[in-house]
Design a protein that fits this description.
Blueprint lengths: L5 H4 L5 H12 L3 H15 L2 H12 L1 H20 L1 H15 L2
Helix pairs in contact: 4-5
Length: 97
Amino acid sequence: MLGGSPLLTAAGASFSETLDALRLAYEPHRLTWQAEYASHINWEFTEPELEEIVPFLEGPSGQHFLEARWRMDAYIGTNTEHLVEQIISVAAAALTK
């Protein structure tokens, strides 16, 4: 998770500087990332499904969905991080019995 990471807590780093640093770090990996994403989409969905999905995602409701999905995942992940740690601890303890 990025929250609390050295990247986001670096002294004097503005949000804009942080985004710029992320973009620069990501750029050498962009083609690999995009190829993986495209490969998975082509594996997961059929052409007829994509013909329905793409127009939705390109429209206002689809854009809202994509933006909200990212936010929801981020907030849910942050808000349940302590639960994940508890679950892992309980499971690890059960394995050592």
